[in-house]
Amino acid sequence: MQGVLTGFATIGVVIGVGALLAHLRIVDASAQQVLSKVAFFVASPALMVMTLSRANVHDVLSSNLIASVAGAVVAASVYVTIARLVWHRSLGDTTIGALSAAYVNAGNLGIPVASYVLGDAAYVAPTLLLQMLVLQPLALAVLDADSREGRLRWWQFASRPIRNPLTVGSLLGVVLSLTGWTLPAFVANPLELLGNMAVPSMLVAYGVALRLGPGLGRAGSAAELATTSLLKLLVQPLVAWFVASVVLGVEGHALLAIVVTSALPTAQNIFVHATRYDRATTLARDTILITTVGSVPVILLLAWVLG
Fold first, then answer.
1. What does UniProt give as the signal peptide span (predicted)?
2. Is the full-model pTM beyond 0.70?
3. Nearest Cα residue to 299 out of 255, 251, 247, 261
C-alpha cells in the first residue's frame, strides 16, 4: 500500500511545484505551452524509445492485454456515443474525451504501482504498449486530421501516425526490443537524459494550468466531467475484471494486476495532447485531477478485496 501512496504523493508534489511557480508569477501561461511542446516533440519520444527498448513486447500476447483492451474499448465507446449523440461534440473534442475516459497512466504512475503493489513492473507492460502503439497513434491521427482544414485523403490519414514524434519513438523502441539491438552510448545517453525530462515537464505544465486556468468544473460541462471520471474509475476496471475473471478464468494475483492496471487514473499526457491540438483542454485537465485523487481509494479497495 505504501508504494501506491508514494507514487501518488510524488505526482502531487511535482504538480504542486508547477502551481506554486504560477502562483508566484515566476512562470505564466506561455511557459505551460512551452513545457507541453517540449514534452510532446522531444522528451516523450525519447522516453518511448528507451522505455520500449527494454520491454518484452511478447507480453502483449496475454490475457492481460485482452482484458485491458476490453476495458478501454468499452469506456471509450460509451463516452463517444454520448458525446456525439447527446452533447454533439466535435471530432477532436470527442477524441480527447474518449482518451480521458480510457487512457490510463501506465507510465509514471503505473510502473511504481506495478513494482510496489503488484511486485513486478512487467505487469504494466501490455497496457503501456497497447496505448503507445495502438490507442495513441490512432487518436493522434484523428486529432491531426481534425486540426487541418479540408479533407484528408485516406493515404494521408493512414500515414499520420508514423509521422508523429511519439509514434516514431514508440516504433523505434519496439524494433530495438524485438531485435535485441543496443543503442551506442553516445545515442542512448542523450535519449535517456531527454526522456527523464518528459514526466516532470508534463506534471509542471499541468500544475501551471491548474493555477492559471478556470477552476474545477468551470468553462466545461459538469455532466461530461462526471461521465469521463466514472468511466475511468469504475466502468473500465469492472469490465476488465469481468473479462479476465469470468470470460478468461484468470485468478489470484494475475487478476489483481489486470484490474489495478485498469483502475489507474487518466494519464497526464492526455492534457499535453489536448493542449497541443487545443481540444477539450479543460475536460482533460479536470478528469486527470479527479481520477488521480479518486483512484487512490479505488486501488486500495481493489488491493484489499482481490489481494
1. none
2. yes
3. 261
